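Quick review question:
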């Protein structure tokens, strides 16, 4: 369960957010403070997963407090509570690693929506840590790509996700769909290294195809497709920051700092992006999202 600290100089705001978290069973509030040095010590002593922090506070503003907490070793995540739309301050908050905003006056629906997305992202991040153990015997696994209801369901589900991100016309989308089908069929205990996954995909192709060359081609197609997905989401965010697709997919499939950087590049009309996308995270999230939606459809 996710733990939270709430830092805001208004007691009523702190109590309201705490009540929403408790009523919606979104996690545990381990402490709250009006800010300043007291707030910093509270966060460091309780070490919550998430700090909900006011942008504007009298003793030390939210950005300054985040900087101090990071300098002193806090590695959790931040949600900024804000009642202003100053783009410079918001941009500075993103640079500091803030991934979500809750706007004042506090709205219960918005708080629940934001924290639900954080819970989902937290689950993904935790899974990323758990899958780093080696799969030395994976090369010995012989995939059984027999037609099955599960396989078809996985392809349809993953295809809908890719469609939402505007990727179905990309060549790499077919590689991604086959990767999801393969992962669903194998039911591996942990997620394989990308090179191993590409190699397994290559071996499923026509017998006369060079598996080494095809593996590299798959890697390039998928990398280009993921880069296009990032650009698509950044473009949606520039057009409408409150767009539900942007709010859902951007922080889930990408590191939000990368999304912000790509948005800045698009604003400057920079066609050649310097952002290095996290391809493994993208495929992992696509795989887990596919599994979750399949479970939801069956329940």
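Suggested answer, residue by residue:
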């Amino acid at each position: 369960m996710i733990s939270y600290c709430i830092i805001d100089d208004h007691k009523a705001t702190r109590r309201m957010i705490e009540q929403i978290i408790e009523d919606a069973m979104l996690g545990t509030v381990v402490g709250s403070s009006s800010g300043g040095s007291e707030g910093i010590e509270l966060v460091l002593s309780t070490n919550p997963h998430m700090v909900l922090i006011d942008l504007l506070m009298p003793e030390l503003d939210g950005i300054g407090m985040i900087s101090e907490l990071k300098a002193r070793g806090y590695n959790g995540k931040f949600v900024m509570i804000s009642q202003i739309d100053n783009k410079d301050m918001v941009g500075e908050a993103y640079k500091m690693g803030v991934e979500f905003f809750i706007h004042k006056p506090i709205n219960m629906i918005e708080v629940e929506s934001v924290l639900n997305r954080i819970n989902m992202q937290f689950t993904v991040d935790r899974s990323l840590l758990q899958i780093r153990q080696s799969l030395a015997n994976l090369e010995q696994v012989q995939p059984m790509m027999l037609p099955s209801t599960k396989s078809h369901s996985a392809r349809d589900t993953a295809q809908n996700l890719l469609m939402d991100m505007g990727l179905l016309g990309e060549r790499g989308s077919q590689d991604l769909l086959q990767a999801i089908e393969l992962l669903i069929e194998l039911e591996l205990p942990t997620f394989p290294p990308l090179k191993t996954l590409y190699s397994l995909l290559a071996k499923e192709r026509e017998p006369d195809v060079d598996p080494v060359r095809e593996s590299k081609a798959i890697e390039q197609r998928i990398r280009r497709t993921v880069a296009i997905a990032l650009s698509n989401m950044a473009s949606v965010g520039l057009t409408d920051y409150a767009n539900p697709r942007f709010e859902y997919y951007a922080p889930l499939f990408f590191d939000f700092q990368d999304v912000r950087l790509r948005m800045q590049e698009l604003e400057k009309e920079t066609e050649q992006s310097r952002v290095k996308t996290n391809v493994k995270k993208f495929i992992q999230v696509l795989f887990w999202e596919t599994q979750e939606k399949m479970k939801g459809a069956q329940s």
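Why it works: The chain has a mean pLDDT of 83. The beta strands are 3-7, 28-33, 50-54, 77-82, 100-103.
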